[in-house]
Amino acid sequence: MLEARRLTLRRGERALIDDLSLTAACGELTLIVGPNGAGKSTLLSLLSGLTPPTSGDLRLAGRDVRTLGARDLARLRAVVEQEPGWQPGFNAAELVMMGGYLQGGSRNGWREAMRLMQCDALAKRQLETLSGGERQRVHLARALWQLMSSGESQRFWLLDEPTAALDFGLADALLAEVRALAQTLRLGVVAVVHDLNLAWRHADQILLMESGRGAAFGPPGEIMQKDRLEALYGVRLAELISHDEQLRAFVPLAEPRTRD
Amino acid sequence: MRLLPFVVLMSAVIALTAGTALTLTPDGRPEPLLALFSGNLPPIERELLWQLRLPRQLLAFTAGALLAAAGGAIQARFKNPLAEPGLIGISGGAALSAALALQCGLPTPWVPLAAFGGGLAALGLTSLMSRPGTDGDRLILAGIAVNAIFGSLLTILIATLPDGSLRTITFWLMGSFANADWPQAERFVIAAPILLWLLFREWRLLNALQLGAATAFHLGFDVRRGGARVVLLAALATALVVSHCGMVGFVGLMAPHLARQLVGSHARRLQIAAPLLGGWLALLADWLAHSLIYPAELPVGVITSLAGAPFFLWLLWQSNRRRRHA
The domain that contains B36 carries what CATH number? Predict the structure, then answer.
């Protein structure tokens, strides 16, 4: 389990994260949604151990994150940032291999990580020749290899807007893949996404954030209420439901312009 | 890159280096170092080669290699392709400190250590001014200013002393391998492989740092401690060179860049290729400095700066262009 209890991060007077609690289980996809500036990326940075919280308690696999060094943390969680850094002069395989630098792992295991992320065909390509979406996949494979090469039984994959560089078809496919990997490899995945409908379709749990606080947390059906979302985002929404009631989506409605 | 092309490429660089060392003489006469081994040399020539040229070439090669390895490591640490020991202040601080140590009559082995302290102090000042992590360009700007301050202080120090009591200003600011002797060469032949190996060992960290400090942390590296280790080693290498040969500029910038073009950014290859190329560049620059106005001699730093400064400007232009397109 990833357990965050009453996390708070203050910068001066302002609370960037305010008394937020969250649990994420292995094998499940937990998605964080909320308006811009709600603190989604900041929360992910806290969960990764990069930013220490001002107060509150964070445990990965029952271990207090404050007591873990960088190396121990890396065995429990891997992170793909919103715009992960890269350098020209490396090929994709070399980048993926960095995931296993401190873990050992099998000699060729990185190939499997690339195959699972469906980017094994890119292995020999130089990073500067890849598109934004391709590079994103290579970074996901790098983080996946970090977790696969760790000997821990509970591992967490933290992703900050993994779908940002993708069109909606690819974004949908990627989240489906990530969820399938979470189930087969028993990874706890916590990801930030912007698209409410994607979240609704793929999440096992959704955390809805509003100005640093957790506005709601639970299964998608409970969280995705039209009234609540309208209030949070400040737009009117139409809710579309397919005939068999299997598929649901929200569409923002343009306010009729008042003539002046 | 596969192993075989890399080995072939590195062998070519080594052959080039050996060729430079064995065949190029300062006065263009056809008695290269090679003749040492053929045995039909007049004793005086033999002595000249053995006592002057060989230690000088060993010093130039190892010093160039150390500067290149330090430059490669510093570029990775600060994730800044424009960084090198001379441009972030280490060299200036080291030179002033070494000159002070010599003036105070410190015993020879202590001079490089004093230079090490001075280099670190200058780097501390540079980092304080630039707050690394905010903007890479500020590091270079602060470094150039810090280097200028220490260079000026050094000039004042030497100008106020009686003539000849200390090595010349030109020696410190422009560097020279002309004072090479066997004790110096021996020191370098022992110290350089150790320092190069210690820097090479950090290749995983150096690779991870090139992705940025946050990603390196996520990969499990203790960025603060590892980064400090890398910077200390680079400063030590620089201090050793500066205290013996003065400030030989831009080798630490050029060699890693050329190496990157040849073998890519992977530090496991780069920290082998860059020192070899750096050594060769220094050897070549020393030969040019020695022979261009023979029998007089130019400071070697004139040659490396003449080649390196335009190179720096070209890199600057490239990075500006990349930023505009991004």
Answer: 1.10.3470.10
| Tens digits of residue pLDDT in A156-173 | 999 999 998 888 899 999
Closest CB from A89, A91, A102 relative to B219: A102
CB of B250 closer than 8 Å to CB of B40: no
Number of domains in chain B: 1
Amino acid identity, residue B248?
V
CATH number of A2-223: 3.40.50.300
**Complex-level ipTM:** 0.93
Name the B residues in 194-223 with CB < 8 Å from any A CB: 204, 207-208, 210-212, 214-215, 217-223
Q: Which residues, listed in sequence order, are joined to residue A11 by a DSSP beta bridge?
A: A14
Report pLDDT digits (tens) over A24-79.
Answer: 999 999 999 999 999 999 999 999 999 999 999 999 999 999 999 999 999 999 99
Task: Please indicate, yes or no, whether the overall pTM of this predicted structure exceeds 0.80.
Answer: yes
* B-chain residue closest to A93, CA distance: B1
Low-confidence residues of chain A: pLDDT under 70? 105, 256-260
- In degrees rounded to 5, what are phi and psi of residue B226? -60, -45
User: Could you say which residues from 246 to 265 on chain B have a Cβ atom under 8 Å away from some Cβ of chain A?
Assistant: 260, 264-265
Residue B87 near residue B147, CB atoms below 8 Å:
yes
Test the A interface: residue of B205, B219, B321 with most A CBs within 10 Å = B219
